[in-house]
Amino acid sequence: MVAVPDNEPWHDSERYKAGKLTSCAGCGKSCRKTHWGPWCYGCNVERIERINKTFADLMK
Ligand SMILES: [Zn+2]
After folding, report:
1. What is the phi/psi pair of residue 32, to 5°?
2. CB count, 10 Å around CB of 56?
3. How far is the centre of ligand 1, averaged over its atoms, from the C-alpha of 56 (Å)?
4. Distance between alpha carbon 44 and the CA centroid of its chain, in Å?
5. pLDDT value at residue 45
6. CA of 36 to the centre of ligand 1 (A)
7. Mind giving me the DSSP string for 5-37?
8. What is the pLDDT of residue 5?
9. CB 3: neighbour CB atoms within 10 A?
10. How far is ligand 1, taken at its centre, from the CA of residue 31, in Å?
11. Residue 17: CB partners within 8 Å, gap ≥ 6?
12. Which residues surround ligand 1, an ion (CB under 5 A)?
């Protein structure tokens, strides 16, 4: 099992298993509603890393 940094909980696949069944807002596949909204693991990680990168760029 891969260690998940505490400050990056979106990398924790366990967090994608508890919510109500829905379809992903990104790819449309069936997934669980997460803390972050209706996003599957792949789409959410990509989305948050893109947002973080945008913030990092703005901080420069
Ligand atoms: Zn998706």
Report:
1. -100, 145
2. 9
3. 24
4. 3
5. 96
6. 12
7. -TT-GGG-GGGGSSS-EEE-TTT--EEE-BTTB
8. 80
9. 7
10. 8
11. 32
12. 24, 26-27, 40, 43
pLDDT value of residue 36? 95
DSSP code for 4: -
Q: Give the pLDDT band of residue 6 (cuts 50, 70, 90).
A: confident
Check residues 17 and 60 and name the one with the higher pLDDT.
17
Over the stretch 7-45, which tens digit does the pLDDT of each residue have? Answer: 899 999 999 999 999 999 999 999 999 999 999 999 999
Q: Which two tokens stand for residue 52?
A: 């973080």
Rounded distance from Cα 60 to ligand 1 centre (Å) = 30
Chain-centroid distance of CA 56 in Å reads: 18
Q: For residue 29, how far is its CA from the centre of ligand 1 (angstroms)?
A: 6
CB within 8 Å of 42: residues ≥ 6 apart: 26, 27
